[in-house]
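I had to read the description of the data format several times before I understood it. For illustration, here is how one protein appears when written out as sequence plus structure tokens:
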Amino acid sequence: MPWYKEPMVWLAFSPAIFGVIVGLTLLTIGVLSYDGPVHEDYYREGRTINQSFERDRVARDLSLRADLRFTADQVILNLTGQLESFPPELEILMENTTRAALDFSVPIRHIQAGQYVGNLPQQPVNQWDVKLYGPEREWRLYGRADFPSQQTLVLQPGRR
């Protein structure tokens, strides 16, 4: 009888065959779902963490707050606080909580009395961190939301 017709041979080889199948499956999943490192400049970012705390303190001192609404294709932001004047343009950073490759920004322009409007390049889905920086990155407001959302998102200084 040839070796491949012997059941004990297949019983002996089955752990190795199973291991190869599982290994190839995990390799395929890993290659297809790779999204790169979260932040390539993590070291520099870690060294500048105190600047982030300073931005939050400046925003708190200015009593800044932003109410943010998302429509189908626009972002509407109402900024309040003790600013000398409202900047003509700001930028909202949309950071995906798990996949940095999905991050994007939305430039917004001042319309009147602290109201800003910008065009939304894509509709966010699932959970996102939303950040708003001053024109010179001297202050920062932060919020987190699950999308799609019909509710107003409140952006406030970080509580550190």
